[in-house]
Amino acid sequence: MGGSSEVPALRRGLAILRLLASHAGPMTASAVAGALDLPRSTTYHLLAELTDAGFVTHLPEARRYGLGVAVFELGSAYLRHDPLEALARPLLRGLVDRLRRPAQLGVLHGPETLYLLREQPRRPLTLVTDVGVRMPTHLPASGRAMLGRLPASQVRALFPSTVSFVSRTGRGPTNLPELRRLLTKERQRGWAVEDGYVTAGFASVAAPVLDHGDHPVAAISVVFPHECPGPRECNQDWPDLAAEVRRAAGELSVRIGGRR
Fold it and tell me: What is the pairing mode between strands 112-119 and 216-225?
């Protein structure tokens, strides 16, 4: 397992991750070294190791470093255990009882949304987004509700090229600029909408669940039949449904120690 000499390196690596997590945006290596009082050579070495492991993302054009996808995967993995589901289940059940529509809980898993929990009304709908199913995270409203709360550098790391933008129905963002415009609109509005991106004839609205640092750890969504004729979506955003979803997501945020 290695000797005790490796422990200081581990502590320094964790300190770098904590620093990047607390910073508003990506940082230069010299800024990291200065903030932690580390030699620059040591800092570059640690950043390289963390980048190789996926915990840090290097932005070569900006010469800066930000948190990598592996950090969010670890956070999601922790919250995928029973505590999150146990806290979310009664909130989803309440949504179903009030709205008579399926309610779901999803988390980010790399460039995908993983569904952990689903509650159905008495007359259930057959959906492709079942428990354990993963979807390209730019398509479902739950995925974009979480993406909209990530730093731009993390979104770029998740979608490095146009090949990353899988399409299921011909709708949805097809490149990074389109996705960013959509995320900005949805972040300002407070909820995300998906109109036939995942399955033709169905739509969904979603809101993010945020931890104490306003990082997205999950999203709550409701799904309902909606047929929009023609190849384009109808530009509806269902504010009444969204208000209920946001209320449930805010309550779950409080329950996990975050802010409403």
Answer: unpaired
Residue 62: both structure tokens together: 């900006």
Type of residue found at 33: A
Whether residue 218 contacts residue 105, with contact meaning beta carbons closer than 8 Å, is answered with: yes
The Cα 186–Cα 188 span in angstroms is: 5
The full DSSP string for 66-85 is EE-HHHHHHHHHHHTSHHHH
Give the chain's largest Cα–Cα span: 65
Distances (CA, A) of 22 to 19, 35, 59, 71, 74: 5, 12, 18, 13, 17
Structure tokens at 36: 């932690």
Amino acid letter, residue 154: Q
What is the CB neighbour count within 10 angstroms for residue 1?
3
Q: Which two tokens stand for residue 28?
A: 């230069």
pTM of the predicted protein model: 0.69
- Write out pLDDT tens, residues 181-199: 999 999 999 999 999 899 8
